[in-house]
Amino acid sequence: MKKLYILLLLAVASVSFGQTIYSENMGTPTGTTLIPAYVTGTAPATFQNGTPIVYTGTGDVRVTSASSTYTGASGGGNVYLTGTAGKYFQIDGINTSAYSSANIQMTFGYLTATFATVQVILEYSTNATATTPTWTPISFTNNTTAAWNLVSIPGGVLPSSNSLSLRFTQPTVAGQIRIDDIKIFNYNPACTLVLAAATGACDAVTFNIDTYTATIPFTGGGSGSYTITPSAGTVAGDNPGSVAAGNILINGVPEGTNLTVDVVSGVCSYQSVLTAPVCKPVNTLPYSEPFPYTAGNTLGSSQRWTNLNTGDDILAASGSLAYTGYAATGNSVTFTGAGIDCFSPFTSTTTGTIYASFLVNVTDLSTMTATTPTTYFAGLTDAAKNYKGRLFITKSGTQYQFGLDAASTTTNLDATLRNAGDVQLVIMSYDFATLTLKAWINPDLATFDVAVTAPTLSQVLTTAIADLGGFILRQDTATTTPTIIFDELRIDTTIGGILASNQVNAIAGLKVYPNPVSNGTLFIETDINAAKTVTIFDVLGKQVLNTTTSNNAINVSQLHTGIYMVQITEEGNTATKKLVIR
User: Fold this and answer.
1) Distance from CA of residue 212 to its chain's centroid?
2) What's the number of CA atoms in the CB half-sphere (13 Å) around residue 447?
3) If residue 497 lies in a helix (H) or strand (E), which one and from where to where?
4) Phi/psi zone of residue 101: left (φ > 0), alpha (ψ -120 to 50 degrees), beta?
5) Model confidence over 175-214: pLDDT tens digits?
6) What is the predicted pLDDT for the residue at 223?
7) Number of Cα atoms under 13 Å in the Cβ half of residue 556
8) Where are the alpha helices (DSSP H) in 73-206?
9) Are the CB atoms for 306 and 280 separated by under 8 Å?
């Protein structure tokens, strides 16, 4: 886990970052939040730092106009000072007393919409809690464009103090100011090493837990003795003690494990942080997701789904939803209010028609208290995760309506009012030839025919969708997303592919036995007993067996005791069954 590089040469002087004293990226608010309320929030919808750091002010924290363009921009929330003179953001409790003022530097992300006339006032104090505090202005190079910029405050400006405070103030009624990514650090001229942003590359992309390799470019090396300590994986690559510029490599980091790498040389300390890359495969069509995950597990931790942001997780829930003619197995998932959105990729499709079906139960509407309680909670996307078709829900008294649209708002609502607690079957489609989105709500599967059965909702788009390659479950805000149970997602290019286990296109005479299996052999029989593709998944959604059989017998002796899902495909028809191994 640790590798030591040693070279007995003198270090040469160069500009570099040293030890971080204080860092704040403002977290990720779920909406516009006043600073006093944001302080009491729950991570990540709050400030990064707690006691002894204290945040006050009359501004607010927003996700709009996220920080960008400068190196290290966090892109989450930012403090916003509206066009009101005297709006401010204050930080108290920063301790710089262990460092010389000459070596204390500061940076912050800064945006001002009216850069030509309005610039933020930045001040520091060492007695901000006094009855009459003393505030000292800090000069800096003003922004010259209405874009994000990283402002740098050199050494010798901020004092060495155990009670340092910073204050950002809006000077006039005109203009809008945003602040993000405040960092105070100790710079030592003897510290020459500079670490660039780390990148991660998957070593493999499978349904198993893969590993990845992190690459940390550096300059300013070539002398000194360095200890490199990663939080996971093993160190390889170039030696910064003997190479002036190169790449530190961290091999074998488990997929889903974020990485922190500390690099220390005497009094010089550096750190590189990397969010783990996603090493999950694209799901092939036909895609059937029965959510066979242990209740309480996070959906984003499975191999079929990826978290797109931060917040409350979408969780696996015990049991399946039931709808006549639409067989359900495994478990389900549930979510409510604000939180993480989960994305599941499937084979990118550009022609024909894509169909997606699922079961949904809106169990509680009481959280939908927003003035306009309309939100989309599920949608088809392109391979780049951009929404292309969205399913909406809007509250109407104690009931709700569904809506369908390609845009982020809609008036295309179904007139039928539905009750909380009732299971609904939704079938969505997009026809690439006619540019038409459709949705059928609760069709009778015994008579359902996409060519004949009129859709509940439809919309002809003015702009063609180039490709579809993903499905997203979305949590909007605490006051717009109700409590939802979601189950049995199926996606394919034919209606038979998503209704294969129903009356529309069943595998006739399907028998899976014995169940539970205790002797290592599973038998699968059908009326025609043709060649079958059999795929078995564990409760985490990881594929543990994939085989083809023509003699109806499957060897499952290598599987451990537990619960699994078996997906069987025969002559284009697919069914999913629950399997217990003893």
Assistant:
1) 18
2) 6
3) helix 495-498
4) alpha
5) 789 999 999 998 877 788 889 989 999 999 888 889 999 9
6) 87
7) 34
8) none
9) yes
Cα gap 322→511, rounded to integer Å: 21
How far apart, in whole angstroms, are the C-alpha atoms of residue 93 and residue 165?
Answer: 6
| Structure tokens given for 339 | 């939180």
Provide the H-helix boundaries in 123-230.
none
The pLDDT value given to residue 539:
67
Rounded to whole angstroms, how far apart are CA atoms 228 and 29? 35
pTM for this one? 0.61
Give the H or E element holding residue 233.
none
The label of the residue with tokens 């509206």 reads 82
Q: Which residues on adjacent β-strands are paired with residue 402?
A: 393
Nearest to 125 by CA among 154, 100, 147, 158: 158
Q: Phi and psi dihedrals of 300, rounded to 5?
A: -65, -15
Paired tokens of 113: 């919409």
Cα distances (angstroms) measured from residue 388 to each of 239, 368, 436, 464: 48, 24, 11, 10
As given in the structure block, the two tokens for residue 556 are 């499952």
* Helix segments in 6-48, DSSP class H: 35-39
Asked whether 85 and 163 are in contact (CB, 8 A), the reply is: no
Q: HSE (CB half, 13 Å, CA atoms) of 62?
A: 14
Q: Are 515 and 310 in contact (CB under 8 A)?
A: no
